[in-house]
Amino acid sequence: MIEYDKDAIVPPYITEYLRGKTVHDDAFLHSLEKYAEENSVPIAEPETARLLSVLCRAVKPKKILEVGCAIGYSAIVMAKAVGEECEIATLECNEDMVRIARENIKTAGYAEKISVIEADAKDYLSYIDEDEVFDVIFLDGPKAHYIYMLDECVRLLKKGGIIVTDNVLYKGMTADDNHVVRRKITIVKRLRRYVDMLMEHRELETAILPLGDGVTISVKI
Ligand SMILES: C[S@@+](CC[C@H](N)C(=O)[O-])C[C@H]1O[C@@H](n2cnc3c(N)ncnc32)[C@H](O)[C@@H]1O
């Protein structure tokens, strides 16, 4: 067994290069990145945030669903990249995060565009009764439960829409037993199953990217 290594996905010099290139000048987003680092709140890595922004500009979604809002960082990144008419619903089960996210979203000027819904995503997805309503679904919440959420996400996704899932390589543990730390074994097994489900799904075509902590992009065909 090797030590749990936060930079295991790609060599540190590649990460350093990507981070050096993936810069932005949004002072408010910088303040959220600093807050997240100081308070150990996991938010999308800079390369992943940029990918989300690029995908949103390309897809031009009218409706986005996010699972896992935390302090609202990735929701604000997506809000900046989409058109006036796009609505974003973001699910978060931690009430402190919900409060902070709502404040941040208001400060960023996106209170009309982004709704933070306090809910357990595992239950909430099945309560959304319309099919094919979202153009983009960003899964960045409870990794061990993605296997139970996938069918609902596919049901809720429009044809041609995308599901983006973060942390699928989980510090390299998904790809290689030698990287697995014992206390993470259940999550790793479920993430492996989740990746298999994506790759074998008849309604999805999926690419796996070794970016950030590992990202999949799945299009509904
Ligand atoms: C990685 S963070 C989200 C980061 C955010 N997407 C960003 O990049 O700014 C994951 C969040 O998912 C939330 N979460 C975990 N399980 C959840 C569940 N079952 N339903 C809703 N939210 C959940 C956690 O409380 C945490 O705030």
Question: What do you see in this structure?
Answer:
The chain is α/β, with parallel strands linked by helices. It has one domain (12-220): 3-Layer(aba) Sandwich (Rossmann fold). 42% of the residues lie in helices and 20% in strands. It has eight helices and seven strands, in the order αααβαβαβαβαβαββ. It has helices spanning 12-21, 27-38, 46-59, 73-81, 95-108, 121-127, 146-156, 185-200; strands at residues 63-67, 87-92, 114-118, 134-139, 157-166, 204-209, 215-220. The chain has a seven-stranded mixed sheet, with helices on both faces. Helix 5 links the parallel strand 2 and strand 3. Helix 3 (46-59) runs parallel beside helix 4 and helix 6 (121-127) runs parallel beside helix 7. It is globular. S-adenosylmethionine binds next to helix 4, strand 2 and helix 6.
In short:
The chain is of the alpha/beta class and 221 residues long. The protein contains eight helices and seven strands.
- Give the overall shape, derived from the CA principal axes: globular
Question: Mind telling me which CATH architecture this is?
Answer: 3-Layer(aba) Sandwich
Strand composition percent: 15-25%
CATH fold label: Rossmann fold
- Which CATH class? Alpha Beta
Tell me the major beta sheet.
Answer: 7 strands, mixed
Q: Structural class of the secondary structure composition? A: alpha/beta
Gyration radius from CA atoms, angstroms: 17 Å
Unreliable segments (pLDDT under 50, ≥5 consecutive)? 1-5
Q: Could you state the oligomeric state of the chains shown?
A: single chain
Fraction of residues in helix: 40-55%
